[in-house]
Amino acid sequence: MLRAAMVGSSNFKLLLAAAAVAVAVYACIDQRSGYNAPRLPGAVVQGEPEQDDRARRAAFEHKGYRIEPFARFTVRARLLAAASYRSGREADLSPVDFALGWNDLSNDAVLDRLQISQGNRFYFYRWQGQPPVPAEVIVRNSANMHLIPASATVARALEQARPGAVVTLRGWLVDVSAPDGWQWRSSRTRTDSGAGACEVIWVEDVELGGSGV
Questions:
Q1: Which residues of 106-123 are buried (b: 16+ CB within 10 A; e: fewer)?
Q2: How many Cα atoms within 13 Å fall on the side-chain side of residue 167?
Q3: Are 107 and 37 spatial neighbours (Cβ–Cβ below 8 Å)?
Q4: Residues 6+ apart with CB under 8 A from 25
Q5: Dist. CA 145–CA 158, nearest whole Å
Q6: Per-residue pLDDT reduced to its tens digit, 61-72
Q7: pLDDT for 106-135, tens place per residue?
Q8: Model-level pTM?
Q9: Is 69 helix (H, G, I), strand (E, B) or coil?
Q10: Residue 58, exposed/middle/buried by CB under 10 A (0-12, 13-18, 19+)?
Q11: Which of 22, 93, 123, 206 lies deepest, with the highest CB count within 10 Å?
């Protein structure tokens, strides 16, 4: 039996709705493909993303939006999928989403049994038969992250990343608001699911490469 799940929404109706608009949004999404990291046994990346809620940075303006950092954030993970966006208000700030996996979700033995895709700023995964690991392990060890590059250099580095690579992102988890009341809030934890479970990251530094734990 085919099973499906989605990080970013636990509502099955929302999954169906996302599928229904897939054709409409396809022209605005660039999906990257092609693993470029060597296949290795076991988890390629071990350890959790690091979030420092004690760190402080003042809010600032960027492209007409108010950026409010609330936690220093570093994630080292395997890039499962990447999607570039060219339309929608979020794309003004974040032109790319990374679906990232660590621990079990950086293991080829697990990833080979999952079909992973992105669309409409969500990350989707599917499997056939029994899942390779329990669904809660998938949620806890992977996430869809909205990336706001802090500079043109960072933006170019994000564009160069390809699925399969190990990437390290350093910056801040942020909430975003606009003068007309529009808001975009980041997740505060790696264990949530459903709408609002994606991280919004102000990315100050990017490292590409590396294949060991």
A1: bbbebbeebebbbbbbbb
A2: 28
A3: no
A4: 119, 120
A5: 12
A6: 999 999 999 999
A7: 999 999 999 999 999 999 999 999 999 999
A8: 0.82
A9: strand
A10: exposed
A11: 123
